[in-house]
Amino acid sequence: MGEKENVFLREAFRSYYEKHSLSIPACSEREFGIGDFGKKIVKRHMEFKGEKELNMFLRKEVPPYISYSAAYYERPSARPMEAKGFLGSDLVYEFDADDIQTKCKEEHDSWQCSDEKCGASGKGKVVECPKCGSGVKVEQWFCSECLGEAKKQALKLLEVVSGELGFDEGISINFSGKAGYHVHIRGEAVRGLPQSARTELIDYLTLNGVDLEAHGFGRLDASALTCPVPLRSVGIAKRFMERLVSFISDWSADKLAVHGNLNRKQSAFLIKNRSVILEKMAHGILFPVDASKPETSRKFWMLLIDEALREESIALNIDRQTSVDIHKILRLPDSIHGGTGLVAKSVSLEEFKRFDPFKDAIAFSNAPVKVFINKAPEFFLGGKKFKAFLDAREELPMDAAVFLVAAGKAALE
Ligand SMILES: [Zn+2]
Ligand SMILES: [Zn+2]
After folding, report:
1. Gap from CA of 134 to ligand 1 centroid (Å)
2. What is the DSSP letter of 134?
3. Which helix (H) or strand (E) is 49 found in, with range?
4. Helix 264-272 vs helix 274-282: crossing angle, to nearest 10
5. Which of 117, 196, 220, 317 is most buried when burial is the number of CB atoms within 10 A of its CB?
6. Which H or E run includes 107?
7. How far is Cα 126 from Cα 299, in angstroms, rounded to an integer?
8. Residue 319 pLDDT exceeds 60
């Protein structure tokens, strides 16, 4: 990024920080870190006396990135880590579209072989060049579809943490500013949780190592299985049974055959006896779908249980190790993301359900700006659709210009 672009973005960001005051609970007990364009963290171990000092800093220095610690410390700026005087930490869960495989990636992501002699390139996301095996340079992009998938996972988490785990207060949600969402749980109940409890929570949410037998699944006889009784179930067992019941009552014969590895006759039997099977499930029995083939029957139910497991597990962005890293720093809610110019907007649960980052996280006006665009796929921003650009001179509204310049896809004219 050139000097001209650097100044342009900083002035734009400054105007945002002059109009907005950011707020973070227990500001003086947090460690902060800032980054520069192209590098999210260049300096850590910073502290502010309070929100007033923090906002003054943002207006004066305008860092392209600012992060804060989920942890609370007696002396946030002390080093090394051990000298800070750890007081506790919020729980934070990150959902990143980066880690979720969606079809749209085939459309908007592209790669290029890093070996110039090979020169292969293509659409989508690959880890290595399929032609020569060298590393690749990947161009990633994010759209409503991939962000929608990240949101779906976050909503699933919110339901479990409030409904099942009873964390009703201190939940706050924010857009990451680029490709995902963060859910923070704050308050006395979580502040002092030891590492082991944090890991246990992760396992609970992702259903890592879930013990199906302990939840009531087991073998009844040669072909039938037992299951938890839906009406008497709570938590994971209840969610599992809701899934299984919906599979049996909603799926077509074809879908049941494909997902449960049945032949036509077996899936037809199942559809014909649907009400009997559902009745048996209500009493804790997974009825055989083919009495003459106990193996097939058991396999069928196991496949459906696996499917329920996949759908019920929350796709947390983990790494079990790093997600319980209590010293981690994350994007400060309502700050600007230096790689997109979008606001890492904090939203209420109600707002979150309707939240569209490409509309609701925009910080800038419509004033026209002349830019030279190297390459950008089609995108939506501020309720407008922009076509794909390649080596194009354009006049764009400020928000779109900031978006492309910050992403390194365009330069100022
Ligand atoms: Zn290659
Ligand atoms: Zn997408």
Report:
1. 5
2. -
3. none
4. 70
5. 317
6. helix 105-108
7. 34
8. no
Q: Looking at the CA of 125, which ligand is closest?
A: 2
Ligand 1 centre from 107 Cα, in Å? 21
- The residue assigned the tokens 């879908």 is 255
Q: 121 CA to middle of ligand 1, Å?
A: 8
The CATH 3.90.920.10 domain(s) of the chain lie at: 3-97+144-201+318-357
Query: For residues 86 and 89, what is the distance between their CA atoms, to the nearest angstrom?
Result: 8
| Ligand 1 centroid distance, CA of 129 (Å) | 5
Ligand 1 midpoint to CA 105 (Å)? 20
Measure 128 CA to ligand 1 centroid, in angstroms: 8
What's the 108 CA to ligand 2 centre distance in angstroms?
A: 7
**Cα separation, 148 vs 97, whole angstroms:** 8
Residue 338 CA to residue 332 CA, distance in Å, equals 12
Q: Kindly give the distance from the C-alpha atom of residue 229 to the centroid of ligand 2, in angstroms, as a whole number.
A: 40
Range of weakest confidence among 53-62, 192-201, 254-263: 192-201
44 token code pair: 């850590």
Q: How far is the CA of 104 from the centre of ligand 2 (A)?
A: 4
Report the predicted TM-score, pTM, of the whole model to 2 decimal places. Answer: 0.88
pLDDT at residue 321 greater than cutoff 70: no
CA of 125 to the centre of ligand 1 (A): 14
- Look up the CATH architecture of domain 3-97+144-201+318-357: Alpha-Beta Complex (3.90)
Give the span between the Cα atoms of 257 and 263, in whole angstroms: 6
290's enclosing H/E stretch is none
Helix axes 398-406, 3-19, angle to 10 degrees: 120
SS3 228: coil
Tell me which residue of 96, 35, 57, 67 sits closest to 327, measured CA to CA.
67
Q: Distance between CA atoms of 383 and 380, rounded to whole angstroms?
A: 7
Q: What is the pLDDT of residues 207-233, one digit of tens each?
A: 988 999 998 999 888 888 999 998 898
Return phi, psi of residue 379, to 5°.
-150, 160
Instruction: Tell me, in angstroms, the distance from the centre of ligand 1 to residue 114's CA.
Output: 7
Find how far residue 386's CA is from the centre of its chain. Answer: 25
* Å from CA of 74 to ligand 2 middle: 42
CB contact set of 192 (below 8 Å; sequence gap of 6+): 88
